[in-house]
Amino acid sequence: MAVTEIKPYQTVNDQTCGWIHTIPPAPRFPCLEENKQVDWVIIGAGFTGLSAAYRIAELNPDDSIILLDAEQAGKGASSRNSGYIVDITLNDGGSTLADEQTQLAKSQLNRAGMDLLRQRVEQYNIPCDWDESGKFHCASDRRNIPKLKNFEGFLERAGLEHQVWRKDKLNERLGTSYYQHAVQTKSGILVNPAGLINGLVQNLPESVELYEQSPVLQIEQGEVIRLTTAKGSISADRVIVAVNALMPRNGFKANRVFPLTLTASMSRPLNPAEYESIGKPQPWGVLSASSMGATVRFTNDHRIMVRNTVEWWPSLTMNPDELTIRRQRNLSGLRRRFPDLTNLDFEYSWSGNVCISRNSKPVFEKATNNLFLAGCYNAGGIAMGSLFGKLIVDYALNHESNELTQVLNQEKPTIIPPRPFFDIGLQTRLAFNRFMGRAEA
Ligand SMILES: Cc1cc2nc3c(=O)[nH]c(=O)nc-3n(C[C@H](O)[C@H](O)[C@H](O)COP(=O)(O)OP(=O)(O)OC[C@H]3O[C@@H](n4cnc5c(N)ncnc54)[C@H](O)[C@@H]3O)c2cc1C
């Protein structure tokens, strides 16, 4: 019988995520302190795990389901991200016909995930500042404009709704003169991610029992899988592992995927004079033309969020001093864009982890007859994680669909070099990309 021993769980989430602080406090759920027997266990209560729970309840309403989270449900990357429900991405490339087809196929999956989320937001009336105004792909460095033009050509050929923005109109729309050029894709959605995931946690189907602060410490595989937590245990017929960036730490896919740690900061709301001084723009979301450039949001309540760091940070968490250093980098991104908002500072700074594979492919697989894995969305998992959570259940229950076939036919993540070669290679690559993208940070 295979036994996966997981290292003692170390808290990853800081308590300073701006999105979480701008929504009402979420109700808490108990820690698992019993021995239980159920049909399903889902490990990880983020977008993937929650979507899996909803899907099991939909297809097999009589099945018993336990959803476990090591910390507070939904308060990991699912609350800490930049809140773009992505329709289509720029940085995947898209220069050959084959690349474009891959990008389009991925976009169709993203849209399927987006539709699932839209349905739930409407059904449960989830307050999350859902905004269908799209997203701006921007360049501040003129050298990046050809990349945007290439993207524009791709959107044109694919018949995807978009708008090109030249400097003057763009500056007026965003309230900053920092950017030179933008392509706005019209079907992306902006949200407060903490509001969205919190709404999904609160409306979980009745057949789902949720336990928080209950990290799984050991998995004994067999016909029935036995999971051990610090104060309890569960025997389950089927288990879904939905821990994304924590896969390697939990003993899964350590030679195929790796986490990167990002930090973001969010300002207080602009006061009326400050808002007026930047031309009273509507809310917006900007993604950079450079993979190492800044992601910036202007929120419904007139806050500015900046995320412009990406690091290989094996501990996966940052202490207050480490966050203070990153906050300075976030602040210089804010100052470059809004030099006249001299009194505006950040109220919150936080870190979060994304899961990356070398070839940007996700994990979606049956590890054994009754143990399933879904994750590694390469920094775009709100829609994709929601879809994968649904499809991993369909896979377990042999519920066929075109989307499932498409996901099963995708390439798998390629092997990564062993450490310390991996660390050296990755640090060098990140430093190079950071240098190349410095004008967009
Ligand atoms: C700063 C930042 C910005 C981002 N921006 C975007 C964006 O704009 N758009 C987008 O689509 N994506 C974005 N992402 C990525 C997105 O947040 C993730 O892809 C998504 O949250 C993945 O969801 P998940 O449910 O798979 O994983 P997670 O949200 O990470 O959930 C996994 C859960 O597993 C739990 N867990 C781990 N180990 C155990 C264990 N042993 N036992 C029990 N539970 C365990 C964790 O506590 C966690 O709650 C961003 C991420 C970050 C960090």
What topology emerges from the helices and strands here?
Elements: E1 3-5, H1 18-21, E2 35-43, H2 47-59, E3 65-68, H3 77-80, E4 84-85, H4 97-124, E5 135-139, H5 145-158, E6 162-166, H6 167-174, E7 181-185, E8 189-190, H7 193-202, E9 208-211, E10 218-220, E11 225-228, E12 233-241, E13 257-267, H8 272-277, E14 284-288, E15 295-298, E16 304-311, H9 320-337, E17 346-357, E18 363-368, E19 371-375, H10 381-396, H11 402-408, H12 421-436
Parallel strand pairs: 2-3, 2-12, 3-9, 5-14, 12-19
Antiparallel strand pairs: 1-10, 4-8, 5-7, 6-7, 10-11, 11-12, 13-16, 13-17, 14-15, 15-16, 18-19
Helix pairs in contact: 2-10, 4-10
Residues 6, 9, 43-49, 68-71, 76-78, 80-84, 86, 215-216, 242-246, 250, 262, 264, 307, 352-354, 375, 377, 379-382, 385 line the site of flavin-adenine dinucleotide (FAD).
